[in-house]
């Protein structure tokens, strides 16, 4: 039996409607849309004190382990890497604001991953029960909300929208395009919009690999003209941390060795937990909460797009996917990075035909190569990769038509689930307040038995996480009193 036949049998190509070329193409597509994490995550963690090279190694290893476990065990096309938002919370809220050493914060992530793994075990199945208890319309709204979330991220990274003190968000300063140091044909916003339209035209024509072609064309053109990347112009108000000008890769190969400080730092920090046990517990629960619902929302939404739901609308073999995510978080914390989670950018690969775990493995291998070939991967301009997020976001919005908008009891919870994701820049926040509002509305209607015990439990837990006396959450107040 040929090698290709063995691969097809192992990953069940025929059953899932997959092909080898399609899986390889899907893996490359997903990787190109999330390769930015190889530079963004180390740059952010460096602010907390973790050396950049250590964080790059940890980012690549965590992504590789998560993707390979997801691919070989769960056989799903979902890619994993240290999560955006989670790393910002790690750096700015935990380390800088709370003053907790980054080593202790890594220990909190490590323990959170272990708890995540335990509650995901099939013998326990808490994660699956929680997700299945959420009403179908709210789960559908999660998918549409994530599409909107992807769109606002993509448009920001393309340079088409920016923050505004008066209106919160606004169109970028288009009148400045081409009036400064860079000509209009060098502006990343223009290049990315051309690429976005080109990708859409190719997809409409049925051309396979459209997203890859668009990203690569925008990248090469950007390198040739030295394109301006508005998202990464931090001094001009951009949010990114990389170079503001697209340059050819300076090197092909680079190896900086094993981490000198972050490897195993979480284990050495366990002895310091007692110095602030209340703060440690609060941070650990915060990481656990966000990881649970970020991952749940992402897995359900991408799984729905991949046709990976059963007749009841539940994710097939969800325990394996959840445990893959938990394993990656544990490994990532051990080598020196914040929480690892499933990436919504996986939708890009699914859109390109990814249906099996081989897609995830391709992403994992490419992420691992980031340790050796980081200069090439990091040279892909942010604006080039971002256009893929917008087109995928548009594709995911079609799910909103399946919500029962005639049901007045579900309209507000579904709407809050959708709009709070882009407005708060958090998948978890959207899910949380969708669930809370749903339970409260059912109670207001006198339908106390409809939410069920699990939904009541989730709503109470989330309310305790967000609300509490003074400027603390209920959890923070309890830990402060008890510990």
Q: What class, by secondary structure content?
A: mainly alpha
By oligomeric state, this entry counts as single chain
Count of separate DSSP helical elements: 21
Strand content: under 5%
Shape: globular
- The chain-level mean pLDDT equals 87
Report the count of strand segments.
Answer: 4
**Span between N and C termini?**
62 Å
Radius of gyration: 22 Å
Low-confidence stretches: none
Across the major sheet, the strand order is 1-4
Main sheet characteristics: 2 strands, antiparallel
Write the element-wise H/E pattern from the N-terminal end onward. HHHHHEHHHHEEHHHHHEHHHHHHH
How many structural domains can be distinguished in the coordinates?
1
* Helix-residue proportion: 55-70%
Question: What report would you give on this structure?
Answer:
The chain has 483 residues and is mainly α. The protein has one domain. The chain is 64% helix and 3% strand. The chain is built from 21 helices and 4 strands. The protein has helices spanning 3-10, 13-16, 20-34, 37-48, 52-74, 86-97, 102-120, 126-133, 136-158, 188-204, 210-225, 265-268, 277-305, 318-335, 346-351, 357-378, 382-396, 408-424, 427-444, 452-466, 474-482; strands spanning 80-82, 161-164, 168-171, 340-342. It has a two-stranded antiparallel sheet. Strand 2 and strand 3 form a beta hairpin. Helix 3 (20-34) packs across helix 16 and helix 13 crosses helix 19. The protein is globular and about 60 Å long. It starts with a helix and ends with a helix. The mean pLDDT is 87.
């Amino acid at each position: 039996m040929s090698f290709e036949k063995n691969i097809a049998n192992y990953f069940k190509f025929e059953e899932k409607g997959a092909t080898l070329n399609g899986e390889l193409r899907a893996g490359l597509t997903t990787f190109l849309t999330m390769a930015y994490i190889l530079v963004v995550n180390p740059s952010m963690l460096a602010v907390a004190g973790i050396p950049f090279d250590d964080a790059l190694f940890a980012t690549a290893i965590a992504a590789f382990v998560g993707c390979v476990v997801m691919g070989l065990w769960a056989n799903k096309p979902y890619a994993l890497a240290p999560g955006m938002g989670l790393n910002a919370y790690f750096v700015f809220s935990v380390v800088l604001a709370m003053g907790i050493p980054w080593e202790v914060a890594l220990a909190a992530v490590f323990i959170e991953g272990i708890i995540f793994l335990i509650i995901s075990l099939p013998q326990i199945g808490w994660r699956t029960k929680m997700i299945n208890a959420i009403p179908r319309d709210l789960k559908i709204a999660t998918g549409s909300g994530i599409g909107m979330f992807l769109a606002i991220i993509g448009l920001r990274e393309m340079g088409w929208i920016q923050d505004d003190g008066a209106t919160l968000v606004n169109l970028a300063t288009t009148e400045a395009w081409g009036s400064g140091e860079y000509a209009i044909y060098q502006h990343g916003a223009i290049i990315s919009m051309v690429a976005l339209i080109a990708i859409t035209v190719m997809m409409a024509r049925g051309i396979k690999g459209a997203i890859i072609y668009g990203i690569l064309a925008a990248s090469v053109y950007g390198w040739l003209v030295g394109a301006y990347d508005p998202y990464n112009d931090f001094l001009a108000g951009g949010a990114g941390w990389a170079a503001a000008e697209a340059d050819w890769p300076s090197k092909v190969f680079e190896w900086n060795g094993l981490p000198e400080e972050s490897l195993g730092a979480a284990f050495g920090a366990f002895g310091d937990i007692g110095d602030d046990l209340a703060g440690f517990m609060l941070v650990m629960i915060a990481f656990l909460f966000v990881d649970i619902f970020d991952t749940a929302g992402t897995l359900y939404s991408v799984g729905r797009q991949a046709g990976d739901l059963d007749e009841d609308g539940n994710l097939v073999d969800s325990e394996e996917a959840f445990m893959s995510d938990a394993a990656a978080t544990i490994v990532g914390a051990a080598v020196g990075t914040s929480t690892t989670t499933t990436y919504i950018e996986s939708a890009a690969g699914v859109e390109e035909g990814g249906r099996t775990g081989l897609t995830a493995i391709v992403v994992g291998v490419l992420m691992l190569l980031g340790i050796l070939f980081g200069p090439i991967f990091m040279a892909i301009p942010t604006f080039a990769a971002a256009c893929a997020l917008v087109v995928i976001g548009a594709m995911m919005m079609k799910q909103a038509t399946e919500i029962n908008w005639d049901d007045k009891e579900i309209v507000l919870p579904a709407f809050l689930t959708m709009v709070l994701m882009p407005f708060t820049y958090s998948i978890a926040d959207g899910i949380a307040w969708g669930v809370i509002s749903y339970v409260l509305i059912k109670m207001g209607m006198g339908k106390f038995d409809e939410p069920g015990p699990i939904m009541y439990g989730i709503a109470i837990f989330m309310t305790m996480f967000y609300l509490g006396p003074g400027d603390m959450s209920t959890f923070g107040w309890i830990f402060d009193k008890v510990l």
